[in-house]
Amino acid sequence: MTVAELRLWRKDAQRWANTEYGHTEPHRRIIMLIDEVERLSAMVDENEQRFGDYTRMPFGRYVGHQLWSIPDDYFEWWFKKNHDRGILLLEAKHAPGGKGYLARKAVKLFDYLVERFNRGTG
Questions:
Q1: From CA 67, how far away is CA 26, in angstroms rounded?
Q2: How far apart (Å, rounded) are the C-alpha atoms in residues 53 and 3?
Q3: Residue 18 lies in a domain
Q4: Do residues 17 and 27 touch, judged by C-beta distance below 8 A?
Q5: 56 forms bridges with which residues in the sheet?
């Protein structure tokens, strides 16, 4: 199930819970389950030290937003500016202090974007 499908389920559950025909308890449970899936997915990504759809953007215009919610055009712009993974790795290895930390995050973002944009291409 994709992030978009989970979001659609959440939207539908919220909409139905707010109608006169809705049974709020089942819809509330659906929403709770979706929240738990997101939380667990973020934990798995963190434990595996990789970025996933629920990872929060560590820098830039969308800092703090979950990666699934950031528009593709922003990532395309970022990827054009940071298209060489080798350079990012060198920066991650040799940059001092905070710059090295951000460079390591940039490498993880690079890997996430490669996977994200190649998902549909098989």
A1: 28
A2: 8
A3: yes
A4: yes
A5: 66
Tokens coding 106 = 């940039």
pTM over 0.90: no
Q: DSSP letter string over 64-109?
A: TSBGGGS-HHHHHHHHHHT--HHHHHHHHHHS-HHHHHHHHHHHHH
Residue 5, Cβ neighbours under 10 Å: how many? 10
Tell me: do 38 and 73 sit in the same domain: no
Q: What is the pLDDT of residue 21?
A: 65
Judge if 73 and 35 occupy the same domain: no
For residue range 80-113, list pLDDT tens digits in order: 999 999 999 999 999 998 888 899 999 999 999 9
Confidence at residue 52, expressed as pLDDT on a 0 to 100 scale: 86
